[in-house]
Amino acid sequence: MLERPGRTTQGLYGGGGDMSARKSRPFAAYLGTQASWFFAFGLQSVLVPYSAKRLLGASDAEFGLVQASLMAPIGFLILFGGVIAERYDRRSLLVILHAVALIPPLAIAMLAGADQWTIGLLMTFGLAMGCIGAIMMPTRDAALNAAADASRGDISIQQAVVLASLVQFVSQIVGMGAATTAKLIERLEVFGVGPDTARLEAAALFVVQGVVLAAGAISAVALPRLKSEKPANGRRPSVFHELGEGLALVWNSPVIRPMALCMVGVGIFVIGMAFFVLLPLLVLNEFGGGLDSLGFALIVFWLGAACATVGLARFRHIERPGRPLVAALAIGAASLAAFAYEPPFIVVVGLVFLWGVSGGVGIAMSRSIVQQAAPPEALARVLSIYQLGFVAGAPLGMVAMGFIVEYFGARTGAFCAMTGVLALAAWLGAATPISTLRERRS
């Protein structure tokens, strides 16, 4: 796609007058929906495990089930979510999904406030949010191109991806920061604040989650309409036929296939093995940290990712995005290798920040490559398959790392994760066309 002359990004950043502001309004609305969902996601990523373990006294097995309830539905439903996103107007879908998503947090807030909640009900909350997220993810990602195009050349697709990633990271950090207020109750209890106060504060935070999701529905109203193209004969093939077409398209693409396979590896080695198991175990076991220390480490990771996307946002176009992607994987592998030598906690924090920087670059560049390579008529299906890789790979990595650390120790676990990521970087750089890929300007 060629750049239109005479256009700038001033409207997006606040300059350029009323006309430019109006042109950039759809993309600003898109960023609003992005911020709404990921604030809620960041908040629940801390609030749900805190509620399960500290307020409901979940056993370790129950705790694992609660955590899995938030992610498992996405792995089962995300491909169907991609088909749904192509069959219906994505603006309407985002409005409806955000409106429906406020129901589970408000319901669990009422139950928590009345002290009528249970582990089973918290799992039901997780399953409901996971089901909504499975449709939300491909719908929101597929709407990005239309929102950027509606800015009439003020922003390129690659720049739109970088800015959307930045909003995602910052919103998650803010959401996690809001959720950590519940952890302060543990310290306040020393001064006579009891578990009832902690329960009520958790209920209030679930209400906050619902309100923010409602704001996302309002923001989505300003998005451009993007209705699906109906077949010439007016009849659509079956859902499973469209899924098969999407899978065939991904597999036959010399660009999208290696990116989808790369995401499987990222899901296994980075998200599952390293982020969700190795890092928490290092903080909690090796350094004797608590919930506050773990929350701090996670926030530092996302701060690194946010800083990386701020840097990338300065570039309107990166001609060869595969090269920073490969470099990001290699840097992430080096960070994981350093974990194996059990450095002091402050060094671990620095390594987590560096790991976050590499993660931010990797997320933005990989998503940009797929957004550019996917045909518009199958964009949602392609994105859902791309996202399925790390969603499906993560649980495999979690289980594997758990056994590795239990029987061989955290050092061996760090080397296993490092080896997997390094092999992934070498394969992507040497055996695929990704590192030599030139992206067109958009």
In words, what does this structure look like?
This protein is an all-alpha fold. The chain folds into two domains: 207 residues, MFS general substrate transporter like domains (Growth Hormone, Chain: A, Up-down Bundle); 197 residues, Growth Hormone, Chain: A (Up-down Bundle). The chain contains 16 helices and no strands. Helix 2 packs antiparallel against helix 9, helix 5 packs antiparallel against helix 9 and helix 7 packs antiparallel against helix 14. The protein is globular, with a radius of gyration of 22 Å. The relative contact order is 0.14.
What characteristics describe this protein?
mainly alpha, Growth Hormone, Chain: A, 0% strand, single chain, 2 domains
CATH topology category name of the largest domain: Growth Hormone, Chain: A
Count of folded domains: 2
Report the order of strands and helices.
Answer: HHHHHHHHHHHHHHHH
Please mark out the parts with pLDDT under 50 across 5 or more consecutive residues, or reply none: 1-21, 188-193
Main beta sheet strand tally, sense and closure: none
Note the overall shape. Answer: globular
Name of the CATH first level of the largest domain: Mainly Alpha
Please identify, by name, the CATH architecture of the largest domain.
Answer: Up-down Bundle
Mean pLDDT rating: 80
The total count of strands amounts to 0
Percentage beta strand:
under 5%
- Provide the gyration radius in Å: 22 Å
Q: Brief overview, please?
A:
The protein has 16 helices and no strands. The protein has 442 residues and is mainly α.
